[in-house]
Design goal:
By secondary structure, this protein is α/β, with parallel strands linked by helices. Helix 9 links the parallel strand 6 and strand 7. Helix 2 packs across helix 4 and helix 8 packs parallel to helix 9. Bound molecules: 3-methyl-2-oxobutanoic acid. The site of 3-methyl-2-oxobutanoic acid has 12 residues, from strand 6.
Amino acid sequence: MYSDRPDFRPLGLPDLQQRKRSGPVLACVTAYEASIAARADEAGVDLVLVGDSLGMVVQGHANTLAVTMDAMTYHSSCVARGLRRALLVADLPFMAYRDVPTAFANAARLVAEGGATMVKLEGADWVCEVIAALVSREIPVCAHLGLTPQSVHRLGGYRVQGRDEAAAQRLREDARRVQDAGAGLLVLECVPAALAATITRELSIPVIGIGAGPHCDGQILVMHDLLGITPGKRPRFSKDFLAGTGSVLAAITAYVEAVRTGSFPGAEHSY
Ligand code: KIV
């Protein structure tokens, strides 16, 4: 007996790897609390991310930079209690992985206290050293490239990345670097669909897209976008799945179905 929760059979990294090889496409969402996480799990979502987007959609900030490790750990532990099957990934927030010792302490907290299977961090360059260090200590890492919200001030806003030839080439190299450093998964945010398709083909790890077109190994949406409750202008890549369904469960189920059948994202959601 290896578990005190016999109903708890989460997907593991080998399952995600298998899905890259033989499908179906991975359907992923963000969640921040137990009840919505349980509905996502029930709807057949494969991976739930406790994103630092919680700074915007839950806490009402203009960006993700104010999110703390205490908040991430708290919301991750709430989500963990709602899941039975979906793999749980939690974001390391801004400055929580600024050097290897800090990353060790914070990533271990998300796994031990927050119940995460994997932690996500943004960028390549110096971040590759952190990825390699965490993976060498048995903490699986999801990388995040393209539009990296923690770099909002350097990027000058939330813009599509990799549009010109040089930027596209850099993104392809960064993707290769984070994979070589040991990342087990890559989130690609807001990049042209053709570039995302190339990177997905070139990598051996699963690539999860958001605003990255239909040819990734998986798709992820922020739950508040999926339910049409994000205040302000809806991003082009999102879709309100609650409109036309009747409940949160029906909306998430419709999203999972749309991702698996390839009807979402369409050209109108891509760049
Ligand atoms: O924080 C978040 O919700 C994310 C997703 C947009 C992928 O990183």
